[in-house]
Each structure stands twice: as C-alpha cells, then as structure tokens.
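Following up on my earlier message about flavin-adenine dinucleotide. Here are the inputs again, as you asked, copied directly from the submission form:
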Amino acid sequence: MSALLVVLEHDRGKWSEANDEALTAARQLVADMADGAELHAVLIGDGALDLAGQAGAGGAAVVHVANDAMLTDFGPEACGETVVQLAVAESVAAVMAVGTSRGNEVLAQVAARMDLPFVANCMTIAPGAGSWSMTRVQWGGSLLEDATLDSGDGPKLVTYGHHAVVAAPAAAPGAGEVREFAPTLDASLARTIVKDRDVQTAGVTLSTAPVVVSGGRGVGSAEGFAQLEELASLLGGRVGCSRAVTNLGWRNHTDQVGQTGTRIAPEIYIATGISGAIQHWVGAMASKRILAINTDAEANMVAKADYAVIADLHKVVPAITAEIKRRKGL
Ligand SMILES: Cc1cc2nc3c(=O)[nH]c(=O)nc-3n(C[C@H](O)[C@H](O)[C@H](O)COP(=O)(O)OP(=O)(O)OC[C@H]3O[C@@H](n4cnc5c(N)ncnc54)[C@H](O)[C@@H]3O)c2cc1C
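Thanks, got it. Here's what our run produced:
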C-alpha cells in the first residue's frame, strides 16, 4: 500500500498548532488518493516520541519518530535529509507539510536533495493517478495559480498554505503504530541549527490569537502602541503591526503581520493606521472579520474591511477601550 508522509512540527516536545491543520489536510488527501494510501506522520528530534500519540489521534496509521544527536534542535538540512531517507525507505507516494516557514524550508530541502519539483502554499490539492492538480498562492497572495505536479517515479512534494485548511479533529483515530527511525547524518548537515530561543511571553501567540489589534505608521510613535496594548489585553488578544512600524523601530519584527511577518487568522482583526498594502494584506486576509480604523476612507484596508471607522485612531481606540471597560464594570 502506498503512503502519504506528513511532516509534523514541534519544538523540543511542544506540539505546533500547524500540525492540526497538517493532519486534517493529510486525512483528506489520503481519502482522495485513488490507491487507498496509508497516512504516515514523521516527528523529528528531541521530545518527538512524547507526541506520537497525538499524531495517531489525528489519524496517522504509522508515526515515525526520527532521532539523532544532530536532530536535538531544528536544522533544515538535517531535517530535510532525514525526511528524504525516510521517504526513500518507505517508498512513499507523497510528502506533505503545512507551509509555515519551517514546513516550507524542510520541504525545499527535500526537493533539492531528491531533485524533484515541489509545490508550496497550496489552497487545494486534487491527487490524480499520475500527475496531481492544485491551486496555490503565488506572489505573496495576490495571485492564485492552477498548477499540475508531475514527479515521475518520485514522491509528490507539497505544502498547504498556513491557515489554508481549517483544522478539525479526526472522526476516528489512526492505528498510531510508532516506528523509530535512525537516519545517517554527517557533520555537513549541521550548518544551520537553532541554538537559542526567546521564551514565549505569557498568553497567546500572534498566529493563534483570537483577536489581533494592529498598528501601522498612523500610530505615530512607539509610545502610541500603549493604547493598542490596553485594548488587546482587554479582548484577550495580541498586538500586531505593519512593516513600516518595524522599520521605524517602534515594535519588534515578531509583531509584524504580513508577507515577511506572521500570517494571522483571528476572529477579529482590528487594523489601525494601516493602509493595507498587499504585503500586509496577505498576512491578514485569513482573518474572519476586519475592523479598519483609518483617517483615509480610500485606504485599501478600509475597502477590504467588514467594518470601518473613518477617524483618528487616537480618539477611536481609547473610546472603544472605555466602552469595553464600562460594559465589563472595570
Ligand atoms: C518585499 C516586501 C515585503 C513586505 N512585507 C511586509 C509585511 O510583511 N508586512 C507589512 O505590513 N508590510 C510589508 N511590506 C511593506 C508594505 O508594502 C507597506 O509599505 C507597509 O505595509 C505600510 O505600512 P503602514 O500601512 O503602516 O504605513 P502607510 O502605508 O504609510 O499607511 C499609514 C496609514 O495610516 C493612516 N493614518 C495616518 N494617521 C492616522 C490616524 N491618526 N488615525 C488613523 N489612521 C491614520 C493613513 O491614512 C494610512 O492609511 C513589504 C514590502 C515589500 C517590498
């Protein structure tokens, strides 16, 4: 029986939310593959074994756990080579991941090492008997492209766009058979390895926050973000920003929403003083609802928003905060 291998992510045993999307998409792909493919998952590195049960619960029939001293921390070359060796050993029909920066980097490594084509950031994938058809996001989200993938005798290599699939629990768990895999890795694969990490500050992350309150150049200063912090905190959300803001040094790049920042998918996105350039929009377009606050009624963000207030954000944001506090009795 052929297999679809889904590459799952974690950081030293901390499950990535993108895995729920990956398993949801993988279950559908396996169902659509004509020859009754089996869903295999791979978890790589320290702490992977602890997550095997979660991968099984998500529908994986087989969970490969790859370990090696070089895989303790994430390194794209070592992870990519590990996936290649596993894909060859298992003769998989396809390798899939979610197109987070890590997912796309590992699949790009796999493609280069196997000398195979790779289609990244798909919205939909239709497996065929020979070639596969897909619609993928191009040019930072401004274009949807219909593509055909033909990999000859090699496995199909694909990623779904991050947040392109709505994660759902499996109707029934997979068998979750755990298989340990020991790749052969040499020192040349240790060129890039994650060594240090910033500890996540308490609360939700930007990419998973239910509410994101973002500020752009219109906020006017680093200090101006205090109003946005207060509103975000009242709503249980996070503060984001545009690249103009990170370029000006008002916020860290970790807060940036967009093509070269984080892609978000909150229930509500409150975009204040942001014009809505395409590079910002691609990071925000998965938001369920958008409220734009802008002095310019013609701004792109206003045109794309579900709700808009055409006024000075320095008046509107404190007014919203005051009303929420009043209703909460604070
Ligand atoms: C390769 C590349 C990648 C990029 N990646 C990203 C990315 O990841 N994320 C990103 O954001 N950008 C990105 N950019 C930059 C992008 O093109 C825009 O320049 C940027 O998003 C503009 O930021 P902004 O909306 O804050 O500023 P501006 O475009 O200057 O807009 C400021 C807005 O604030 C409004 N305003 C001003 N004062 C007030 C006020 N008092 N109250 C309310 N509204 C007010 C104005 O009407 C205006 O609409 C990228 C660009 C390139 C070339």
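One observation from looking it over: The chain has two domains: 3-190, 211-328. Hope that helps, and feel free to reply on this thread.
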